[in-house]
């Protein structure tokens, strides 16, 4: 029994190592399209699409980078007055919706109105997705899609794109997509975009 | 998510595939005895030599490791409870409290250990403060009971040394573990408040931003505290260096806990609350925990043959009856339940069959009564309490706390029996009568107060009745179930109050926010030094012919009662196996909002009929963590097969040998 176990374990290891290598190789491949040179300017309005708390993290980044930005979880078209860039942070949170006292339908209507107004005023939209898998699939993807579709640039933490979801959206909309490994690494490209 | 495509290495192992196919089952049997959930369906796991079901694979493994060393169910449950506090640090831990029900088959005896947190002596200084504002501060911290409760269980009923059962927890804290989906999502949601305490931020955040799925979470300070407990027992936590560090750190951020509070904390060993349901005996958590509510609900439901009525996912009549039952139970709990050491609680009346019968006959089979859930009347179980007020050690009943008779003026002798028709063919009649307008009742009380004028506590869930939003109070807390090879059983639920508790960390321990479980006014559940707040926690063991049949429990705040009752109904009335019971859609309603929450999966015709009966539905998208994370074990009374299932709503596992 012991011998069988050892043999099987060795076989499993022999299989697992090349498999892992192949997986790693594959994982590295869904690369983003070449990042185009895009510049954004302040003042910046940062809003959520889906009422997740991720927007507060992006607000914290903007503060640390000393960007001219304000966070409005429930931004409406009138908040775009004097704004030169709209940062949309997509991600659905039932807790967030509960705290705001609104339904998903209400939130989608708000987001659509905000984005439409930004488009009408030619205010560029920067989509920042930092929530990884926690802000993917289901209702989150409804907000991810609308934010991606209207953005001029997409900044995404890698885990949220592990299935190439944002790569596909970026390809379709021909929008530059920049992928970073971890949430704190979002700050560097964010800074560059506003230099 | 990523697809693994065959690479060059795959070609070299083509011939090995046959051997692999032969060896794989053996490999899985030998090395992967824990069945991990896949997708959103619970899986059934059956084992011969003991089984543990917890919210995290590492906690399940801790229990299995201890059972393999010869430990019994209590040893394993204590090991898992310490470990779950490390790997599910948001839901429970050394800084919180809980309760457990134990049944020892050899002795044919059952026990209940109450280790819920209690108010510190200086709590009077906090009485008039805004609890909601204080929730994520040191002012919400009660004296934690977890260490006292777990060590008491081990001393009384365990077989292995404390240092041995603590090993898995210490290992997890020292070496770290990969953050799972549930924790990643919660850290992301809570990052702002986690960042407000430096020590908490150090653990959960990376440069001020949330750690993510797959990241390693290490808790070296917590490991040191666990090691101090391993060396010194409960005193290693409640006295000495660790206690001094806790008090020093909590005091520095404004908390009122003292060294005396810690030193004086004692877990309470007693018998569980007992009831019966369809030839089974129910053993559940005593006061101030909510086993009595589970028994009350089952007693009411026992007045009908649910199996004949049909399952609540396909029968509106069944779901309506269960919802109306749970509304009344919740109403009673929020008005009458509290710490029996401070006030007379008519618990014997609440769990009596006669009282249940009176409550049952107040339910209208055709419509929601009263029209608004929040107007649900509190019952009067005092007359059914044979022990009565004035028993040794109990305070006299305070009229302000106990509701008087309803508009019938005589409980138990309802003059309009709303179930006088034949319930089993009532559904057709219900169609004809569904247009009947339910009684419009309004107590005139604020929705934040019950009839006795008591403002409700955190656990009673927040009010959303005046706007069209959903009650999305978090499904905090954790539950684990263990049965060993001898058939001994432990059902254990523990909590920090809400996810991440107060978010204040001391000596590596995340501290509870139990203050929010006290009511802001009234006498039953008001704050007093040394008092335990009421909680919905209901760890339960069901016996059949005197031996354990079911071990069940769930987290989920105010949903705990409804989820435990639904599971017991699924398992007893509908003969479901544990996976089916856990996969079945759930529902919830309470006194403090006017919505009947249901999960997706409840048939549309049922939903339509419920709406016609007067229920205002809130349909959740698929299954939802909101409804808890139940971990169940069933011991087949005929074959003796022991099977468990973790809840697909959480990241749990069932495992055993």
Structural notes for this entry:
The complex is a heterodimer of chains A (195) and B (657). Chain A has helices spanning 2-27, 54-64, 94-100, 104-120, 138-150, 165-173, 187-193, and strands spanning 44-49, 69-71, 85-90, 125-129, 153-157, 177-180. With 195 residues, chain A is α/β, with parallel strands linked by helices. A six-stranded parallel sheet of chain A has the order 2-1-3-4-5-6, sandwiched between helices. In chain A, helix 2 (54-64) links the parallel strand 1 (44-49) and strand 2 (69-71). The model of chain A is unreliable at 17-33 (pLDDT under 50). Chain B is 34% helix and 15% strand. In chain B, strands 1-24-3-13-14-4-5-10 form an eight-stranded antiparallel sheet, covered by helices on one side. A seven-stranded antiparallel sheet of chain B has the order 2-23-22-18-17-12-11. In chain B, a hairpin with a 2-residue loop joins strand 15 and strand 16 (509-510). The longest helix of chain B is centred in the middle third of the chain and has 21 residues, at 316-336. The two termini of chain B are 31 Å apart. The interface between A and B is large, with 49 and 46 residues.
Topology:
The complex is a heterodimer of chains A (195) and B (657).
Chain A: H1 2-27, E1 44-49, H2 54-64, E2 69-71, E3 85-90, H3 94-100, H4 104-120, E4 125-129, H5 138-150, E5 153-157, H6 165-173, E6 177-180, H7 187-193
Parallel strand pairs in A: 1-2, 1-3, 3-4, 4-5, 5-6
Chain B: H1 8-12, H2 16-31, E1 34-36, E2 45-47, E3 50-54, H3 57-68, H4 73-87, E4 97-104, E5 109-115, H5 131-134, H6 146-157, H7 162-175, E6 177-178, H8 181-194, H9 198-204, E7 205-206, E8 209-210, E9 216-217, H10 220-232, H11 235-238, H12 240-252, H13 259-264, E10 268-270, E11 273-277, E12 280-284, H14 291-301, H15 306-309, H16 316-336, H17 347-350, H18 353-360, H19 426-433, E13 478-484, E14 489-495, E15 505-506, E16 509-510, E17 540-544, E18 547-552, H20 560-573, H21 578-583, E19 587-588, E20 596-599, H22 604-613, E21 617-620, E22 632-635, E23 642-645, E24 653-656
């Amino acid at each position: 029994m012991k011998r069988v176990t050892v043999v099987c374990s060795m076989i499993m290891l022999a299989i697992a190592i090349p498999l892992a290598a192949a997986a790693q190789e594959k994982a590295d491949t869904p690369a983003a399209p070449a990042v185009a040179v895009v510049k954004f300017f302040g003042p910046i309005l940062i809003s959520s699409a889906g009422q997740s708390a991720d927007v507060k993290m992006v607000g914290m980044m903007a503060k640390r980078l000393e960007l001219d930005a304000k966070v409005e979880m429930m931004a409406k078209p009138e908040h775009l007055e004097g704004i030169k860039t709209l940062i949309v942070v997509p991600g659905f949170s039932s807790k967030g919706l509960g705290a705001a006292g609104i339904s998903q339908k209400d939130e989608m209507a708000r987001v659509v109105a905000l984005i439409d107004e930004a488009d009408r005023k030619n205010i560029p939209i920067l989509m920042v997705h930092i929530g990884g898998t926690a802000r993917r699939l289901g209702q989150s993807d409804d907000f991810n899609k609308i934010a991606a579709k209207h953005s001029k640039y997409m900044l995404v933490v890698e885990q949220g794109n592990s299935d190439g979801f944002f790569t596909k959206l970026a390809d379709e909309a021909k929008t530059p997509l920049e992928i970073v490994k971890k949430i704190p690494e979002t700050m560097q490209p964010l800074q560059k975009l506003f230099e | 998510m990523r697809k693994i495509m065959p690479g060059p290495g795959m070609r070299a192992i083509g011939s090995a595939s046959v051997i692999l196919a032969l060896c794989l089952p053996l490999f899985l049997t030998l090395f992967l005895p824990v069945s991990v959930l896949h997708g959103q369906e619970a899986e059934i796991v059956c084992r011969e030599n003991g089984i543990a079901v917890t919210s995290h694979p590492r906690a399940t493994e801790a229990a299995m490791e201890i059972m393999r060393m010869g430990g019994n169910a209590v040893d394993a449950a204590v090991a898992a409870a310490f470990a779950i506090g490390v790997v599910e640090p948001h839901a429970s831990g050394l800084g919180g409290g809980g309760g457990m029900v134990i049944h020892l088959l050899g002795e044919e005896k059952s026990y209940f250990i109450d280790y819920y947190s209690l108010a510190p002596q200086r709590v009077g200084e906090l009485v008039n403060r805004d609890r909601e504002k204080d929730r994520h501060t040191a002012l919400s911290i009660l004296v934690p009971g977890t260490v006292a409760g777990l060590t008491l269980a081990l001393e009384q009923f365990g077989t292995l040394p404390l240092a041995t059962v603590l090993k898995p927890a210490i290992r997890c804290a020292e070496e770290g573990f990969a953050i799972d989906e549930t924790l990643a999502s919660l850290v992301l949601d809570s990052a702002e408040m986690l960042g407000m305490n430096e020590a908490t931020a150090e653990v959960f955040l990376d440069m001020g931003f949330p750690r993510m799925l797959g990241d390693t979470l290490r808790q070296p300070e917590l490991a040191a505290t666990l090691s101090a407990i391993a060396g010194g027992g409960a005193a290693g936590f409640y006295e000495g260096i660790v206690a001094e560090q806790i008090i020093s750190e909590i005091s520095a951020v404004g908390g009122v806990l003292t060294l005396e509070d810690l030193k004086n904390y004692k877990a309470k060993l007693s018998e569980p609350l007992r009831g019966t349901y369809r030839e089974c005996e129910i053993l559940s958590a005593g006061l101030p925990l909510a086993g009595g509510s589970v028994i009350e609900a089952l007693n009411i439901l026992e007045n009908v043959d649910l199996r004949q009525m049909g399952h609540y996912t396909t029968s509106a009549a069944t779901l309506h009856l269960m919802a109306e039952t749970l509304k009344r139970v919740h109403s009673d709990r929020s008005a009458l339940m509290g710490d029996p050491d401070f006030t007379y609680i008519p618990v014997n009346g609440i769990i009596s069959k006669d009282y249940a019968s009176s409550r049952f006959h107040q339910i209208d089979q055709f419509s929601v009564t009263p029209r608004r859930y929040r107007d649900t009347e509190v019952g009067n179980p005092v007359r059914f309490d044979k022990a009565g007020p004035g028993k040794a050690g109990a305070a006299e009943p305070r009229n302000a706390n106990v509701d008087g008779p309803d508009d019938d003026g005589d409980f138990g002798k309802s003059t309009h029996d709303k179930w006088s028709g034949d319930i089993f063919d009532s559904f057709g009649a219900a169609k004809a009568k569904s247009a009947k307008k339910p009684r419009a009742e309004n107590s005139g009380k604020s929705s934040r107060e019950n009839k006795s004028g008591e403002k409700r506590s955190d656990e009673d869930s927040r009010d959303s009745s005046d706007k069209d939003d959903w009650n999305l109070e978090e499904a905090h807390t954790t539950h684990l179930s263990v049965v060993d090879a001898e058939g001994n059983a432990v059902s254990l639920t523990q909590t920090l109050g809400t996810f991440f508790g107060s978010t204040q960390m001391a000596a590596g321990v995340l501290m509870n926010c139990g203050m929010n479980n006290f009511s802001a006014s009234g006498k039953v559940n008001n704050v007093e030094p040394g008092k335990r707040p009421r909680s919905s926690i209901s760890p339960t063991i069901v016996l059949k012919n005197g031996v354990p049949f079911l071990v069940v429990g769930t987290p989920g705040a105010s949903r705990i009662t409804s989820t435990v009752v639904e599971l017991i109904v699924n398992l007893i009335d509908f003969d479901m196996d544990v996976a089916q019971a856990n996969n079945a859609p759930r529902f919830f309603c309470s006194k403090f909002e006017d919505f009947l929450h249901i999960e997706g999966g409840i048939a549309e015709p049922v939903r339509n009929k419920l709406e016609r009966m007067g229920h205002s539905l809130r349909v959740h998208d698929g299954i939802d963590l909101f409804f808890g994370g139940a971990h169940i074990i069933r011991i087949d009374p005929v074959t003796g097969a022991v099977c468990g299932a973790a809840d697909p709503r959480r990241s749990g596992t069932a495992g055993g040998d």
